[in-house]
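#struct-help
A.M.: can someone run this one for me? Single chain, 54 residues.
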Amino acid sequence: MRIVLCNDGVCDPPKCPVVDIQDNQVTIGEKDNVCTLTREQFDILKEKIKNNEI
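D.P.: on it. Structure tokens below:
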């Protein structure tokens, strides 16, 4: 699953951040600025966001 994060339909794919969720990893970022997490790390990140820890 690939989700593009943009505001109000002003999406410019090379510039807008993307969350690319695969079976074993999740890549977050844009063009040359990305972070790759394992699914376990991504699940921890999701829980921290849901619990308002970050």
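A.M.: thanks! The radius of gyration is 12 Å.
D.P.: also worth noting: The first helix runs from residue 39 to 50.
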